[in-house]
Amino acid sequence: MAVCPELMGGYVTPREPAEIQGGTGADVLDGRARVVEKSGRDVSAMYIEGAYAALKKIRELGATMVVLKEYSPSCGSAMIYDGRFANRKIPGSGVTAALLEREGIPVVSEEHFADRLQQGGEWK
Question: What values do phi and psi take at 42, rounded to 5?
């Protein structure tokens, strides 16, 4: 089943680009960073709301692993954009990925999903 935490948090498509400024998704969850649209609007609350809505759905489904879209401020599992809207990536996870990891739900990017399957599907 496919879910989009950003849509679950109140976003619509198409939408303005957003990036995490001041840290990673974990920092957004802890109030030390924020998710900001390119125009400057702080949309952190929508990202946090969407992350918790996705977590609820994932628990309802009994999912034991989640495949997420890399580089997203919500779903990036290993890399996110650096917050300057300059197409630069940094190590870190998005808001939903960070929440799922905190809750013990393994995440993997769509880019690395096939690699993980070839390694025997171990989700450690």
Answer: -80, 120
Per-residue pLDDT reduced to its tens digit, 86-118: 999 999 999 999 999 999 999 998 877 766 666
Q: How far apart are CA 82 and CA 94, in angstroms?
A: 11
pLDDT in tens, 39-56: 999 999 999 999 999 999
List for the chain the helix, strand, coil content (%; round to 5): 35, 20, 50
Other Cβ atoms less than 10 A from the Cβ of 12: the count is 7
3-state secondary structure of 96: helix
Listed in sequence order, the residues at least 6 apart from 57 whose beta carbon sits closer than 8 Å to its beta carbon are 1, 3, 8
